[in-house]
């Protein structure tokens, strides 16, 4: 197992280098640059910039250097923890990322816990109570969760919360707590605003995972070793949770590994609709504005999260199912 992990870490390092190079090339592919966008914006506001001022902007943002030199400066600084300067915000990229990453991880992890708890419970119950009214009701809710787009569900919940509970919707804090220091009241206000994004982000994932859980558990419950466990006199709950559940959860663990990048991006579309101060909208704006250092840093972080998630999923699979070995 240790040899397998070491090999995977080596592959991860090579993959990250390839992702960084390809990501940087893709970000630079669209015509124009941040300076050109900034010059157009200033001219629309009535400013008449001379060529000397434009050249000064290029030098200020380091865009007067060749692309390969800019990439080398960025990637070598990334290794040292220096992710470059965000053009649009005139701040270090690291400051922008760390300022939003905490809240992003908070509600993303809560959404992940909500998704898994509800999906596993609903999937197991539906599989062990086939063709009953609760099973049909869960199936209907699953199809509704899969068919409704997240942004539409966010709008519906916003209207519902505002009209029924008279809540201030949008954002993660009320106006009086938005810039206030951390306190118990601010934490309670945060929790009061978190339930909408948690339900919105978890809805489609819960619906899909619960269907996968139901289908896999139905297959496992019909296997011979499960019938043997029943024949030995074990209770149905022990047969389901101790013997069948561990083999039925394999696909969910693999999905869990691929969901780690979502913890960083925080579901960008939902964050835009709900006006959440998370990392997703920041990444989206960086791509639009061609803020290459900010966009490139996010791209590498998402790649790191995906690779780590896949590694953790493989290790967790080996722990859940002793038959799996990676030697």
Summarize, please:
The protein is built from 15 helices and two strands.
Walk me through the structure:
The protein is mainly α and 327 residues long. It folds into two domains: 2-92, no CATH class; 100-320, MetI-like (MetI-like fold, Orthogonal Bundle). The protein contains 15 helices and two strands. The protein has helices at 2-28, 34-44, 51-60, 67-79, 93-128, 133-147, 150-164, 184-221, 224-231, 236-248, 250-258, 260-265, 268-274, 279-288, 292-320, and strands at 85-86, 91-92. A two-stranded antiparallel sheet has the order 1-2. Strand 1 (85-86) and strand 2 form a beta hairpin. Helix 7 (150-164) packs across helix 8 (184-221). The longest helix has 38 residues, at 184-221. The mean pLDDT is 79.
Low-confidence stretches: none
**In whole angstroms, how far apart are the ends?**
6 Å
Largest sheet: 2 strands, antiparallel
Total helical segments: 15
Keywords:
single chain, 327 residues, mainly alpha, MetI-like fold, two-stranded antiparallel ribbon, 15 helices, 2 strands
